[in-house]
């Protein structure tokens, strides 16, 4: 399930000695050259695609097929619903994941007691939950959120648990010496100490939450971008399917970009230097 | 001996899990937890036993796992080949990496409607979906693994006059094996999920379709039974892979600190 967890590690490290500006220029050059095959493929597709192809409509057709959806506003509404589900789901997963992670990271007994239960929840495949959740909770926002939150919790929970476990006991002792109250201890010590690992968890959970959001929508066709995709596929509007796929891709790209930059910005503020 | 074994088994944790199930059973039986379609664990067990004895569950599970494993194995072969090519041939890297980055940010699940559209309600469609889902983790982990090979290893190889294909075969690929295995494990999990989606919205067979039809005929026990078996088979497949790899490549896995 955590497809994107594995797919993050890869930008070639710039060799030492190049100045930041030169490195940046080189990187953007590489990006343009690297995008060539994709652009070339799309151009070839446009040129070679037979007119009115039922399977491989030309890229220009994709845009044309999206126009009616843009005009009656359904595309924007759909993106809104997907985005709302995604944001709420990620938020809930962050709160619950951080809380449980901090708890079981602090207490070995709690960790051992809850371990197998959590582990067995973790292996549930998200897709399999959708029909069950619709039956129990109906075709509702709660159902969507439940299915999104369950898998998105894990990266955050595990990351926070590890961080809490390796937190130096001196930090907690010191706060006791200083006579900090419980609330202060959480606010001044625990939260700052656990934030970086929480952000790391969110960076992995965010693409996952987006994928699961689309998954729920494609399977149930309630609303959202996935719902539109499902309808377009069921009515064989192939050009519209491709168009919506591109929009989903753009959304995915945007989410990745936003999460990475947010993590960077927060860790800059907190430590005065970049994470990594 | 028995005490050491006892300490390894997480008794407290298993008890909690058991307690959770007992509590669930009690809450449903006494009607405190009242969702219209929430079955008790005992009901799920009987439903599961019925499904197994009628042969329905083994057939559906077999179909789903067959498609998953076929697509995933194909993805492993293609992913390792492509990953090696991109990691070791500099121009290929330069002229493809950004395209790969752009393509992989397409949410994989959005690809399912396209596959259904192109290939219809067929087993091939399922295999293609599983293939596409597993391809990315395998490809990207192969890339990462090959690029993480320590330069000193290659230098030692040069001194011993190991180069070209032999260098790849004897040094680079073995060093990247733990990464590739990680990619395969992630790929397996992703393809299983995506196969389920493909069966729900496309090919009417396998566990995915069984789940949908159980949902439409209001049989939550049946759904729970399927969910449990599909999760368990995911765990078993993963364990099989890890076991097989540690037997076939004991050195590489030990070097990576995985037992």
Describe the structure in your own words.
Chain A is mostly helical and 276 residues long. Chain A has one domain (59-271): Orthogonal Bundle (MetI-like fold), CATH 1.10.3720.10. Chain A has helices spanning 3-6, 20-48, 59-71, 74-106, 108-122, 126-137, 141-165, 169-177, 182-220, 224-234, 238-271. Chain A is elongated, with a radius of gyration of 23 Å. Chain B is mostly helical. Chain B has a single domain, classed as MetI-like (MetI-like fold). Chain B has helices spanning 2-8, 11-30, 41-53, 56-88, 90-94, 97-104, 111-119, 123-147, 151-159, 165-201, 206-216, 220-248, 250-255. In chain B, helix 10 (165-201) runs parallel beside helix 11 (206-216). Chain B is globular. The two termini of chain B are 21 Å apart. The mean pLDDT of chain B is 82. The chains are: A mainly alpha (276), B mainly alpha (259).
The shape of chain B, in one word, is globular
**How much helix is in the residues of chain A?**
over 70%
Can you tell me the CATH topology of chain B?
Answer: MetI-like fold
Q: Could you say which structural class the secondary elements and strand pairing of chain A correspond to? A: mainly alpha
* Number of separate domains of chain A: 1
Note the run of SSEs of chain B as H and E.
HHHHHHHHHHHHH
- Count of β-strands of chain A: 0
